[in-house]
């Protein structure tokens, strides 16, 4: 499917590197970005729809790169890179990460291309994969609905994971509130919340260099809404702990924010673990481990 609305030259269609529902794979996209994460709290509240349009998702005017002549004649710097949230698959569930890429007016195309390319080595090491292949086509984006065509390949469970990746990724943009697949009724994030793990970590992301104090963010549906965090150094020693309360208790998902600090004398690899304490025996359960690089702190 084309990424643009209206008549589309076939050459453009061939140039779009989008993903289709296929077998899991991973790829090298370079180092993970260190920019602050976009809001990752799952919510069914979508932004107010924009006026009817049939165009690619675009960043705000302040994110539009000036033309070559404008940059040369005015001496103004090019706009900052864009940070996009990507939802990959791990153990049959959705998990987020981020990419920082050069500014573009076609952010939807960029996001789907990154999804199809697969996780970075640091992300793949945690078990992240993508089930998007290269044959999903976007036919239009209008009135807050992105319409896509997905080939009928793969088993139903894999296809649903593929759709969930697309929905959770595209609906981060204000111009997309829902996604329509193959002429079916539009769907949104609420249709795939069962594919989220009990604890989702939106920051930090795998491979990120982090400094103290570190703000750990995400969403969770855990006992008494209590989310615990610990930081391990390169030797596996616990160098920091903390806990916080999600905005919603047991039986519903809410956002959390936990701040932790540590004392280390050198930069080293480490791990941030976010987990729930079992009400039955006090064990750590539903743990999400994020490999990071710890900056010296004290």
Outline the low-pLDDT stretches.
1-19, 25-73
How many strand elements? 15
**How far apart are the first and last residues' alpha carbons, in Å?**
53 Å
Biggest sheet architecture: 5 strands, mixed
N to C succession of SSEs: HEHEEHHEEEHEEEEEEEEE
**Domains (count):** 2
Rg, please? 20 Å
Average pLDDT over all residues: 79
Q: How helical, in percent, are the residues? A: 10-25%
Oligomer designation: single chain
Count of individual helical segments:
5
Strand order of the largest sheet: 9-15-14-11-12
Q: Please report which band the strand proportion falls in: under 5%, 5-15%, 15-25%, 25-35%, 35-45% or over 45%.
A: 25-35%
Structural class: alpha+beta
Tell the overall outline. Answer: globular
What is the topology?
Elements: H1 10-15, E1 20-25, H2 68-74, E2 82-90, E3 93-101, H3 107-117, H4 121-124, E4 130-133, E5 137-142, E6 145-149, H5 156-170, E7 178-181, E8 199-203, E9 209-210, E10 214-220, E11 226-232, E12 238-245, E13 254-260, E14 268-277, E15 284-294
Parallel strand pairs: 6-7, 9-15
Antiparallel strand pairs: 1-4, 2-3, 5-6, 8-10, 10-13, 11-12, 11-14, 14-15
What would you say this structure looks like, in words?
This protein is an alpha+beta fold. It has two domains: 10-195, no CATH class; 199-294, Immunoglobulin-like (Sandwich), CATH 2.60.40. It has five helices and 15 strands. The protein has helices at residues 10-15, 68-74, 107-117, 121-124, 156-170, and strands spanning 20-25, 82-90, 93-101, 130-133, 137-142, 145-149, 178-181, 199-203, 209-210, 214-220, 226-232, 238-245, 254-260, 268-277, 284-294. The strands form five sheets. Strands 9-15-14-11-12 form a five-stranded mixed beta sheet, with no helix packed on it.
């Amino acid at each position: 499917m084309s990424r643009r609305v209206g008549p589309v030259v076939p050459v453009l269609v061939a140039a779009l590197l989008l993903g289709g529902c296929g077998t899991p794979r991973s790829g090298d996209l370079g180092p993970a970005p260190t920019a602050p994460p976009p809001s990752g709290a799952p919510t069914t509240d979508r932004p107010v729809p924009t006026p009817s349009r049939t165009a690619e998702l675009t960043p705000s005017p302040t994110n539009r790169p000036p033309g070559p002549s404008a940059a040369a004649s005015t001496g103004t710097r090019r706009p900052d890179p864009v940070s996009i949230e990507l939802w990959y698959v791990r153990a049959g569930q959705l998990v987020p990460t981020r990419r920082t890429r050069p500014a573009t007016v076609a952010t939807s195309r960029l996001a789907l291309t990154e999804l199809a390319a697969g996780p970075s080595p640091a992300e793949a090491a945690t078990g992240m994969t993508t089930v998007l292949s290269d044959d999903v086509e976007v036919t239009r984006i209008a009135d807050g609905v992105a319409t896509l065509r997905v080939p009928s390949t793969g088993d139903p469970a894999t296809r649903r994971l593929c759709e969930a990746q697309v929905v959770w990724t595209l609906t981060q943009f204000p111009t997309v509130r829902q996604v329509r697949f193959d002429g079916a009724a539009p769907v949104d994030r609420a249709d795939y919340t069962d594919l989220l793990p009990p604890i989702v970590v939106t920051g930090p992301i795998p491979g990120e260099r982090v400094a103290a104090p570190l703000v750990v963010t995400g969403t969770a549906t855990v006992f008494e809404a209590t989310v615990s965090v610990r930081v391990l150094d390169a030797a596996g020693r616990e160098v920091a702990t903390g806990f916080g309360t999600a905005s919603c208790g047991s039986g519903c998902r809410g956002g959390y924010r936990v701040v932790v600090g540590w004392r280390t004398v050198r930069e080293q690899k480490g791990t941030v673990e976010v987990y729930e304490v079992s009400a039955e025996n006090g064990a750590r359960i539903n743990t999400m481990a994020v490999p990071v690089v710890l900056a010296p702190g004290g």
